[in-house]
Design a protein that fits this description.
mainly beta, Immunoglobulin-like, four-stranded antiparallel beta sheet, three-stranded mixed beta sheet, globular
């Protein structure tokens, strides 16, 4: 049996100026009742795009055969600048998932 692949394709933009944000680390987390689990990460490209991919094997080990509830943390260098923890993507299914993350961004 072939493992299913979960792919998150996204873009991070500045909320105010509606422009793409390059060079930010985007982490995907599974929201759990007791302890959230890290899923994967990527760095945004010149167009603010990122891609995070994981397979069903990884999913089974971390999430015990259930659909993950994902949120994202966005970092500039080591500083957390945004989180979507208050707007979780519930029960993500295998395949492609597109997300747009809007950040209140001030270039320091």
């Amino acid at each position: 049996m072939r493992d299913k692949t979960f792919q998150i394709f996204g873009q991070v933009i500045d909320q105010k100026h509606r422009t793409a944000l390059q060079g930010l680390r985007v982490e995907a987390w599974d929201s759990d009742m007791f302890r959230d689990d890290f899923v994967g990460a990527d760095v945004t490209d010149a167009d603010g795009n990122f891609r995070i991919e994981f397979t069903q094997i990884y999913f089974r080990e971390l999430f015990f055969d259930r659909a993950p509830d994902l949120y994202f943390k966005i970092f500039q260098d080591r500083e957390l600048i945004a989180s979507t923890e208050d707007s979780v993507l519930w029960n993500i299914q295998a395949g492609d998932q597109d997300v747009l993350i809007e950040v209140d961004y001030e270039d320091s």
